[in-house]
């Protein structure tokens, strides 16, 4: 560990996500991991020993009171994002939150307002937009090579991917929603990123919980069939109308009778060309199959651009730490973009519940 760190950070949450943040911070020479907080005290102790962390807590309240702390990562269940994030921001700490920013747009707005009031960074771990293939496709679309995008489709589909039926993931109160809020928010994020952040004017969506409600589709089949407590959807589909007449179609599932291998994809039609990205194996496949479709002088000129593997949470944490060292960029990184994602997700759930197209507030 660097004996003279530039930034002192704490990580709240000792599960899989928190461990990704810890490993990423540990790899940076200008960061000291000052504290870890988590209810799994044995796991916290083990992580503290592995990374040489001096302060270990069970409660997050103690962690954010540490003097000389610069920032925290919030890697806990969704219902805790807003209370912890707001409290940390009010303490003058920068915050890197796991996705989604919060359970809903109301809580997300509270976090953004706290960031603005404190003049601190509020960032979200949207790691899939930092995939190498997504970044490569983003540069192609951004260059104008495909002309003006007018229609796109994006999805993340699982066969058996419900994270522990009966846990906080499948509680509407604690999670805010099912795959639309969990992995669908990643799809929404990278799709809007690739399209250049168009304004979403309205949505029409459906949701279904046919499989999860029967204990079908859990990551652990026997455990899934033995447990109840499934209160969210297991599949969602949404049609988003974009400013200027374009459209984006989204699909996401935790459970569906489809190919057993996860699929993360994106396709776009533009006025001068199109493109398709398919990552069979989803997050486990570092680089998906990327193809660009174009005509040159009336002849088909399709090609497959090369892309480097993404670096997931390592890239997210590096970007966050880079922001901490650039105070002039803090006002532009107050979580507003993640808030817009939350408001779109809210509109999708409202549309599904009411059976009609609804505007995005």
Automatic annotation (TrEMBL):
Keyword Transmembrane helix recorded: no
Domain of life: Bacteria
MF (Gene Ontology): nucleotide binding; oxidoreductase activity
Entry keywords, A to Z: Oxidoreductase
Cited InterPro entries: Gfo/Idh/MocA-like_OxRdtase_N, Gfo/Idh/MocA_oxidrdct_glycsds, GFO_IDH_MocA-like_dom, NAD(P)-bd_dom_sf
Gene3D superfamilies attached to this UniProt entry: Dihydrodipicolinate Reductase, domain 2 (3.30.360.10), NAD(P)-binding Rossmann-like Domain (3.40.50.720)
Domain GFO/IDH/MocA-like oxidoreductase: 134-275
Protein's recorded name: Predicted dehydrogenase
Protein source organism: Saccharopolyspora flava
């Amino acid at each position: 560990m660097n004996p003279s760190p530039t930034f002192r950070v704490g990580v709240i949450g000792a599960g899989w996500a928190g461990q990704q943040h810890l490993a990423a911070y540990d790899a940076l020479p200008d960061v000291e991991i000052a504290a870890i907080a988590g209810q799994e005290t044995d796991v916290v102790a083990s992580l503290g020993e592995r990374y040489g962390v001096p302060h270990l807590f069970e409660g997050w309240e103690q962690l954010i009171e540490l003097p000389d702390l610069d920032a925290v990562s919030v890697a806990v269940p969704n219902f805790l994002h807003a209370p912890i994030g707001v409290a940390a921001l009010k303490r003058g700490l920068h915050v890197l939150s796991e996705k989604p920013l919060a359970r809903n747009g109301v809580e997300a707005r509270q976090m953004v307002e706290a960031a603005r009031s404190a003049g601190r960074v509020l960032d979200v771990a949207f790691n899939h937009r930092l995939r190498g293939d997504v970044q490569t496709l983003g540069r192609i679309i951004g260059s104008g090579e495909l002309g003006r995008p007018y229609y796109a489709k994006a999805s993340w589909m699982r066969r058996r991917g419900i994270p522990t039926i009966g846990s906080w993931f499948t509680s509407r109160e604690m999670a805010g929603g099912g795959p639309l809020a969990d992995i669908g928010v990643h799809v929404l994020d990278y799709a809007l990123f690739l399209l250049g952040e168009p304004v979403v004017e309205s949505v029409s969506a459906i949701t279904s919980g046919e499989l999860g409600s029967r204990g079908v589709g859990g990551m652990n089949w026997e455990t899934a069939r033995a447990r109840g407590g499934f209160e969210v959807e297991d599949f969602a589909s949404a049609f988003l109308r974009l400013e200027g007449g374009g459209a984006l179609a989204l699909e996401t599932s935790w459970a569906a009778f489809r190919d057993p291998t996860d699929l993360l994809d994106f396709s776009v039609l533009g006025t001068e060309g199109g493109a398709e990205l398919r990552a069979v194996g989803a997050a486990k496949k570092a680089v998906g199959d990327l193809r660009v479709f174009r005509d040159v002088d009336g002849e088909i000129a399709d090609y497959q651009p090369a892309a480097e593997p993404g670096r997931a949470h390592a890239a997210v944490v590096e970007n966050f730490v880079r922001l901490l060292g650039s105070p002039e960029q803090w006002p532009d990184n107050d979580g507003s973009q993640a808030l817009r994602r939350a408001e779109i997700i809210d509109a999708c759930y409202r549309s599904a519940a009411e059976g009609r197209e609804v505007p995005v507030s």
